[in-house]
Amino acid sequence: MTAAQRPGMLRLQVNTTGAWRNVIEFPRDDDIICAQVLTAAPLLAAAAGPRATLRICSADGLQTVQSHWQAGQGWRPARAAADGDAS
């Protein structure tokens, strides 16, 4: 089953060199897993260097962005991220 066939899945992506790359897909409706991803992802990004940014998007062909993470700013809703920068 492809991601497009799995409703309710989210995707964590990382950007370290100008392109978004998939890290992991996880269920949108599992609060424990979502909390674990939101906690662990910034630790991985910090290890990748100061330019690393993260985003969570829908795990489908549209990749609708839900939130962004940037060092020093933490997680921000997609609307706030879009208003503040072009990442």
Produce a short descriptive summary.
The protein is an alpha+beta fold. Helices cover 29% and strands 36% of the residues.
Explain what the structure shows.
- By secondary structure, this protein is of the alpha+beta class.
- The protein contains 2 helices and 5 strands, in the order ββαβββα.
- The chain has a 5-stranded antiparallel β-sheet with strand order 2-1-3-4-5.
- The longest helix has 18 residues.
- The N terminus is likely disordered.
Strand order of the largest sheet: 2-1-3-4-5
In which range does the helix fraction lie? 25-40%
Ranges where pLDDT stays below 50 over 5 or more residues in a row are: 1-5
The sequence of SSEs as H and E is: EEHEEEH
What structural class is derived from the secondary structure elements? alpha+beta
Helical stretch count? 2
Percent of sequence in beta strands: 35-45%
Total DSSP E strands: 5
* End-to-end distance: 30 Å
- Mean of the pLDDT scores? 88
What is the global morphology?
A: globular
Instruction: Please give the oligomerization state of what you see.
Output: single chain
How large, in whole angstroms, is the Cα Rg? 12 Å
How can the largest sheet be summarized? 5 strands, antiparallel
